[in-house]
Amino acid sequence: MFEPVLLKNIDVPDGHLLATYEAGGGYQALAKALREHTPDEVVELVKQSNLRGRGGAGFPTGMKWGFVPKRGDKPKYLCCNADEGEPGTFKDRIIMERDPHQLVEGLAVSAYAIGAETAYVYVRGEYVKAIRRLEQAIAEAREKGYLGDGVLGSDFNFTIHIHCGAGAYICGEETAMLESLEGKRAQPRLKPPFPAVAGLYASPTVINNVETLACVPHIVMRGPHWFRAIGPDKSPGPKLYCVSGQVKKPGLYELPMGIPLRELVEDHAGGPLPGRGIKAVIPGGVSAPIIPRDGLDVGMDFDSLAAAGSMLGSAGVIVVDDSTCMVKVATRIIEFFHHESCGKCTPCREGLNWAVKVLRRIEAGEGAPGDLEQLDKLCKGIFGNTFCALGDGAAMGLRAALAHFRDEFAAHIDERRCPFH
Amino acid sequence: MSMREKIEEAAARYPDQRSAIMPALLIAQQEHGHLPGPVLEEVADILGVERIWVYELATFYTLFHTVPVGMFHLELCDNVSCMLCGSEALLKHLEEVLGIEKGSTTPDGLFTLSTVECLGACEMAPVMQVGDDYHGNLDVGRLDALLARLRAEAGQAPGDDIAAAAPPGE
Questions:
Q1: Does the CB of B52 have a partner CB in chain A at under 8 Å?
Q2: Which of A172, B67, B134, B140 has the maximum number of C-beta atoms within 10 A of its C-beta?
Q3: Are B50 and B99 in a shared domain?
Q4: pLDDT tens sequence across A295-331
Q5: Where are the domains of chain A?
Q6: Which residues of B touch A420 (CB under 8 A)?
Q7: Which of B14, B84, B123 is nearest residue A246 as measured by Cβ atoms?
Q8: CB–CB contact A242 B123 (8 Å)
Q9: pTM, to two decimals
Q10: ipTM of this complex prediction, to 2 decimal places
Q11: What integer best gives the mean pLDDT of chain A?
Q12: What would the DSSP string read from start to end of A321-377?
């Protein structure tokens, strides 16, 4: 039986308060790290755990930390990406609202490991409750000596600041987030240099997702082998899955990495609504290519989903049932990416604008012969040709919808109407 | 604390004043309801940064409003999960009962109706943000009850300065 660790306090009354967190063993990992380990040893533990970034890209966290130069006179920064904007994703909000100390402790242990004295948590501005809870948690932790000068009597000084976003999906892209933190429009930077070398204020910077940081104290307490024993060895650990859409029990589920998508949707989330069948599932936020119902046996981990032509992304699992028009879903997804394109590069800015126009006319029954080929061409023109992954995500999503549901798109054009209306 | 003091306190968190523009704009918007030109200039002057830097952020980020919004800003999510759970019908209903189209404000200044991208609360789709609060698992009945509650709150709010009235907190 899998024992949840990340969501352990989620349904506990007053789970957001320090007393509750401490009663469940909170901040012992920070004390242990400071007492028993050098910063390098903490980096090594995280490397051995095979923890991979939970924000979407799945990059090995320990390796990312290892890129931070050991010497140099510039301050190092830890940034937490809490700009959760990938449609279908709500895990970081729930951690921050109901168990914010888990993030605070994760930040402290991680900052100790990389040698940062300052962290900025970039929280999307809509998350007012999460921001308040996090502010309260930071104040409580400072009061108790878990933050501040000389954390728990050590020579480690650490301060956390919250930076509120203001409604731009692109800030989830790490270099756009750094631009935003520097007070600029959030447009991605050219890499290299990578943030570990020259990030915030051109200083060495590590950017980690909320869930990634929340895993770190558990790795310190229970050891890397415990973590690695959960799920596939190359993509291990407990994982938060956000299930939403046309499903009986939408919600946040903590289960091992790699569980079959079918088990997640049909068993844990209760399957489709009465009288309906599952048509397809988006496994990792709308950037992740949609999987038709016959592909649901895939494992929910980075490598299995990549092999199946999709991706784990943010694990925002959106269930689409057989009453829904796939052209409408695809249109809505591309409208989203078009709206959120930062405008920096042409393939994304113009290509998505064009794709939205074509999709809208197909859905309205005004599609023309050649429109699907036009969409194929647009996907080809966008994919791999944009500054950041926003354009890629849009193109991958549209390509998958066109590949798996081409008949449905064609029917809209042939019948000159949406067959679902 | 005055707006200037709040902004200066926020600015102390950063080694570079430019980083404080976003928090300063949020503070100024809470103070003024929206961000007209003179407020943007005041923010630039308090921080001692270029005015263009302030203008470009106020117009890039969607949570900043350079034009007035109603006392209650109804921000209905219509992204995929909410759409699959019926947000379209809710939008239609809101447009009907408020007598306005999305993107506009009722003549009495009470409600601005907008659709927004994913609010990150898909487990309670369809969801709408009003001020600081999320309202989830919405249907037409719950929406009507919410509107009635907001109207009642507005009736109790002192003063007529709608643009300056802050939305209610939790």
A1: no
A2: A172
A3: no
A4: 999 999 999 999 999 999 999 999 999 999 999 999 9
A5: 18-228, 238-321, 326-415
A6: none
A7: B84
A8: yes
A9: 0.95
A10: 0.96
A11: 97
A12: ETTS-HHHHHHHHHHHHHHH--S-SHHHHHHHHHHHHHHHHHHTT---TTHHHHHHH
Q: Is residue B29 part of a domain?
A: yes
Q: Does domain A18-228 have CATH number 3.30.300.30?
A: no
- Give residues 280 to 299 of A whose Cβ lies within 8 Å of B: 282, 286
Asked whether the beta carbons of residue B19 and residue A246 sit closer than 8 angstroms, the reply is no
Q: Which of B55, B64, B90, B62 is nearest to B76 (CA)?
A: B90
A245 residue type, one letter:
G
Question: Among residues 38-77 of chain A, which lie with CB inside 8 Å of chain B?
Answer: none
Q: Are residues B49 and B12 in the same domain?
A: yes
**Residue pairs between chains A and B whose CB atoms are closer than 8 Å:** 143
Closest-CA residue to A275 (of A251, A250, A246, A297) = A246
Same domain? B78 vs B15: no
Convert the pLDDT of each residue in A126-165 to its tens digit.
Answer: 999 999 999 999 999 999 999 999 999 999 999 999 999 9
Question: Which residue of A lies nearest to B64 if distances are taken between CA atoms?
Answer: A166
Annotated binding site of B for [2Fe-2S] cluster: 77, 82, 118, 122
What's residue A72's pLDDT? 87
The pair of structure tokens assigned to A68 is 């931070």
Q: Which domain holds residue B100?
A: 72-156
Tell me if chain B has a CB within 8 Å of the CB of A87. yes
CATH number of the structural domain A238-321: 3.10.20.600
Q: Are residues B93 and B20 in the same domain?
A: no
Chain A residues closer than 8 Å to B124 by CB: 250
In this complex, is the C-beta atom of B16 within 8 Å of any C-beta atom belonging to chain A?
A: yes
How far apart, in whole angstroms, are the C-alpha atoms of residue A4 and residue A16?
Answer: 17
Do B7 and B27 share a domain, yes or no? yes
For residue B124, being part of any structural domain is answered with yes
Distance CA A121, CA A163 (A): 6
CATH number at B125 reads 3.40.30.10
Q: Which of B54, B10, B21 is nearest to B36 (CA)?
A: B54
Mean pLDDT is lowest, of A49-58, A164-173, B148-157, for B148-157
**Tens digit of pLDDT for each residue in A201-259?**
999 999 999 999 999 999 999 999 999 999 999 999 999 999 999 999 999 999 999 99
**And the tokens for A36?**
């028993």
Instruction: Identify all chain A residues contacting B123, using CB atoms and an 8 Å cutoff.
Output: 90, 242-244, 250-252
Task: Name the band, by pLDDT with cuts 50, 70 and 90, for residue A71.
Answer: confident
Q: What angle do CA A236, A287, A321 make, to 5 degrees?
A: 95
pLDDT in tens, A351-397: 999 999 999 999 999 999 999 999 999 999 999 999 899 999 999 99
Of 3.30.540.10, 1.20.1440.230, 1.10.3660.10, 3.30.1960.10, the CATH number of A326-415 is 1.20.1440.230
| Residue B65 domain flag | no
Contact between chains at B118 and A165 (C-beta distance less than 8 A):
no
In chain B, the number of structural domains is 2
Tell me which chain A residues have a C-beta less than 8 angstroms from the C-beta of B19: 163, 181-183
CATH of the domain at B42: 1.10.10.1590
Rg of the Cα atoms in chain B: 17
**Tens place of pLDDT for every residue, chain B, 170 residues?**
999 999 999 999 999 999 999 999 999 999 999 999 999 999 999 999 999 999 999 999 999 999 999 999 999 999 999 999 999 999 999 999 999 999 999 999 999 999 999 999 999 999 999 999 999 999 999 999 999 999 999 986 544 444 444 444 33
Burial of A73 (0-12, 13-18, 19+ CB in 10 A): exposed
Same domain, B76 and B129: yes
Are B85 and B148 members of one domain?
yes
CA distance A323 to B83: 13
